[in-house]
Every structure is written in C-alpha cells, then in structure tokens.
TrEMBL record:
InterPro entries: DegV, DegV_C, DegV_domain_contain. It holds the Pfam family DegV. PANTHER family: DEGV DOMAIN-CONTAINING PROTEIN DR_1986-RELATED (PTHR33434), FATTY ACID-BINDING PROTEIN TM_1468 (PTHR33434:SF2). Keywords: Lipid-binding. GO terms for molecular function: lipid binding. This is DegV family protein. The lineage of its organism: Bacteria, Bacillati, Bacillota, Bacilli, Bacillales.
C-alpha cells in the first residue's frame, strides 16, 4: 500500500526536507488588512516580521478551506492508496477538523486525519517520522501507532515577550495576559489536552530558559535517545547560542533549530522562544 503524508504549514518543515521525504504541505493563511498570504508559499517568516513591525494593526490568521483539502486528497488519490494528514492542535485551529470533513468527501483513497496536539517542529517531527515509515512501505496503522508513541513522549515549553498576542487571539485567557503584563513575568507555556496553558510563572527570560534546560535534563538523564528542536520567532542568533549550550550539556541529544512562522508568530509575537523534544 502506498501512503502519502500530509501536514500543514505550521509544522515549519524546510522545503528541502519536505521534498526529500515526499511530505505534502497544505498552507494556513496570515492576513494583513485586506491582504491574505499563504505561509510558506506567498510569505516567508522574515518578510512577515518586517510587515508586522510596520502594520497599524496586528495580523490575523485563518485555516485552509475544506475545498483545499479535498483538492489535495483527490490529487493524491491518483498515486496513493492512503493518506495520513497530520495537523496542529485541534483546539487552537480548525485545520484538523477541516481534514476530517474533507476525508468524508473524497473517493478512491483512505484518509487518516491525525491531531498532533502540538504545532511547529513538534508536529514536524511527527510528519518526518511518518514519511520515513511511508517510504519504507509501512502500513498506515503502523505509522499511526508510531505517532501515538511519539505523542506519549513529546514535551515542549515556550515563552513569549508579550502575552497580549495570545490573549487577543483567544489562545490564552484575558486575566492570565493581564497578570503577566503587570508582573513583568515570563511564564512558561505548554500544551495540555490540546490547549495552551501556563506551566510556571517565572520573572526573567534567563530563568525561564534555565527551567526548560532543567526539564530537558531530567529526561536526558534517563538515558533514552532524544531529539530536540530550539524554536524561535526571529531570534536565530539566540537560538544558535542555546543550541550550542545544550549540545555541551546534553551530548547524547540530537538538536536542531526551527522557527515560529507567520501563523504561529501572529499569536506568539516576535521574540518567542521554545524547546521541544521527544524520543527518537
């Protein structure tokens, strides 16, 4: 059975990696006023941050249409028997539900929508592992079982410079945003049951980063093989410094760097930093 792997643009998998592993990508959209852009297609992260700094109003985002999913799945049906469609957390976007709806509207191919429960490179790791298995000829059920194993071991923590982006977009409650702004804290955020929630309230970015390092260290100390990604919102130099420090602390962990692209950065704002890890 030939199985295609689809993910959405918020996985932020580099184009060359998507091409290497035959991963198909469906883009979400970022909107400045009346102008709509497909992220990873019409707008890059660098251009997005430039436009956001100059914009009078903060941008918004939107999910792919059901029609886009149907069109993609029908195209894949020409060459594949099945498709596993891996998407960002279903409680922060309707993208996963769009894949579910579209899956019942196509014929000639079995569609398996999968809610990663995360976003960015945590989600990207799922798609890459799934694609490697698909290329090796594994059955969809085996790939889905592997994704569930990854989900059980995945952890990710991130912090933002300004909580108002999350509050405005409805991803964090207003009271939490106000408290964070008043106390000048750098709360660690994570996902629980598909939702963004505060993990701990910490006063400075340095202390927040060190707390994430400690959490990663607890898992690395167990001796299990881990892969990890440092994720940044237009802070590549800082991300490289973090990677260098973590590689010295945890030489057995496989580190990479990724980024918060336009749609996710719309809600986190410039300067956000996160670290995700899971079992290899």
């Amino acid at each position: 059975m030939r199985t295609a792997i689809v993910t959405d643009s918020t996985a932020y998998i580099p184009k060359e990696v998507r091409e290497k592993y035959s991963i198909y990508m469906i883009p979400l959209n970022v909107i400045f006023g009346q102008e709509e852009y497909r992220e990873e297609v019409d707008i890059t992260a660098d251009v997005f941050f430039e436009k956001m700094r100059m914009a009078d109003e903060l941008p918004t985002s939107s999910q792919p249409s059901i029609g886009q999913f149907v069109e993609l799945f029908e195209q894949l049906a020409k060459d594949y028997d099945a498709v596993i469609s891996i998407h960002l957390s279903k409680k922060i976007s309707g993208t996963y539900q769009g894949a579910v709806t579209a899956s019942g509207m196509v014929e000639g191919i079995k569609v398996y929508p999968y809610n990663s429960g995360w976003s960015c490179m945590a989600q990207g790791f799922y798609a890459i592992d799934a694609a490697k298995m698909a290329l090796a000829g594994k059955e969809p059920e085996d790939i889905l079982a592997r994704l569930d194993e990854l989900k059980a071991s995945t952890k990710a923590y991130f912090m933002v410079d300004d909580l108002t982006h999350l509050q405005r977009g409805g991803r964090l409650s207003g009271s939490q945003a106000v408290i964070g702004s008043l106390l000048k804290i750098k709360p660690l955020l994570t996902f629980v049951d598909d939702e963004i929630v505060p993990f701990e309230k910490i006063r400075t970015q340095k202390k927040a980063l060190n707390r994430i390092f400690d959490l990663l260290g607890e898992d690395a100390a167990k001796g299990l093989p881990l892969k990890s990604s440092i994720i940044h919102a237009n802070r590549e130099e800082q991300a490289l410094e973090i990677k260098d420090e973590l590689e010295k602390r945890f030489p057995t962990v496989d580190f990479s760097i990724s980024y918060f692209g336009p749609v996710i950065a719309t809600h986190l704002g410039e300067g956000a930093i996160g670290i995700a890890w899971m079992l290899k």
